[in-house]
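To fix ideas, we close by showing one paired sequence and structure record:
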Amino acid sequence: MTVTLIRCNEQHIKELQKIGIDTFIETFQEQNKAEHIDAYVKTAFHSNQLLKELQHPFSQFYFVQVNGCLAGYLKVNMDDAQSEEMGDDTLEIERIYIKQSFQKLGLGRYLMNQTFEIAEKHHKRDVWLGVWEHNKAAMAFYQKLGFVKTGVHAFHMGDEEQMDFIMTKTLR
């Protein structure tokens, strides 16, 4: 199995939009109302929104490929691109998604390790993320990697407010 990491740019916008929508729906459709998911993906994955995020100097998107097939993606934020004010010595994992057909291959751990390397390259002490309070499998995965619950924040899907746990890992 050959795993490749590719930094996204503006030319990847259609692929990014498709994998973003597909993996979000795969992950959350069973636990949420269809109209909330639909409202969220229309906004969060609109091509203009993705272009704005891709052009932000402190946001980075990456594709992970397996044997040349797009398997998932990662979005990290630093400094003023973070969705919460967490300080200059932190890096946020805003999105980390693997297509269901590629799960259980170690790609989540691979993307996390890549994230830790990005954080260290940029001299960040902590890596943090928000995880939906009902996503027990993801929380367990993050805990195995050394993340601990450090707070909460609201996440809006359509007109519904949900609660995310903030989980943080200190690198040094």
